Amino acid sequence: GENVEQHPSTLSVQEGDSAVIKCTYSDSASNYFPWYKQELGKGPQLIIDIRSNVGEKKDQRIAVTLNKTAKHFSLHITETQPEDSAVYFCAASKKGNNAGNMLTFGGGTRLMVKP
Amino acid sequence: DSGVTQTPKHLITATGQRVTLRCSPRSGDLSVYWYQQSLDQGLQFLIQYYNGEERAKGNILERFSAQQFPDLHSELNLSSLELGDSALYFCASSAASGRPGEAQYFGPGTRLTVL
Questions:
Q1: Is B104 on the interface with A (CB under 8 A)?
Q2: CA–CA gap between residue A70 and residue B6 (Å, rounded)
């Protein structure tokens, strides 16, 4: 099955700096890659997603890039703010025989933004 | 707030017992997903229902079962509970087809503690 690896597991940055989180996936049939932000005591919140027919997508301070050949995708957060502190998860899904929509998640990155 | 609701928020029970977790999807969403989040296993897909029918199955134990009712709410039943079943259980929903590449929106979760 699909395997998603995420790095780093923790990331500490100064407010205003950029943060980059990287994920690799194993199954070349994967074609949808969402990113989730999870704050303490809350459920994962979808912050951005990208499909395999697109190489990059941007939404204000957040961008995601996808390299299908290398099977990796990355989350970029610019001008980080203390409220960006959370655990971030990457995920992947692919078209299966049953056309279900299961997500396989990476292990998570704890981002700490120091004021 | 994603619009997905889950009850109860917390559940404490004993080994060998049975519990039911409830989820209401966002208004209009036809697909419901269940995920388990534990410290050692991370976020893992359990099962997906689309408009009352099972659509995809992940690493769901035989002691666990789920269903989606005509009003589209879903229940996850966990029986013969073991200490290792202690985890956060999340429900997510998606809009139209429940097919790969459809964005999933997560609820706030139910924290299950098995003593």
A1: yes
A2: 38
Residues of A in contact with B100 (CB under 8 A): 31-32, 93-96, 99-101
Strand partners, A112: A12
Q: Tell me the three state secondary structure of residue B27.
A: coil
Nearest CB among B56, B105, B107 relative to A98 is that of B56
- The whole-angstrom distance between residue B58's C-alpha and the CA centroid of its chain comes to 12
Measure the CA–CA gap between A56 and A65, rounded to whole angstroms. 4
User: Who's near A53: CB < 8 A, 6+ residues apart?
Assistant: none
**What residues in A contact B102, CB-CB < 8 Å?**
101
Full DSSP string of chain A? ---EEEE-SEEEEETTS-EEEEEEES-TTEEEEEEEEE-TTS--EEEEEEETT-SEEEETTEEEEEETTTTEEEEEE-S--GGG-EEEEEEEEE--TT-----EE---EEEEEE-
Using an 8 Å Cβ cutoff, are B53 and B30 in contact? no
- Residue pLDDT tens, chain B, 115 long: 889 999 999 999 999 999 999 999 999 999 999 999 998 888 999 999 999 999 889 989 999 999 999 999 999 999 999 999 999 999 999 986 767 778 999 999 999 999 9
Please say whether the beta carbons of A113 and A81 come within 8 A: yes
Phi-psi sector, A77: left (phi>0), alpha (psi -120 to 50), beta:
beta
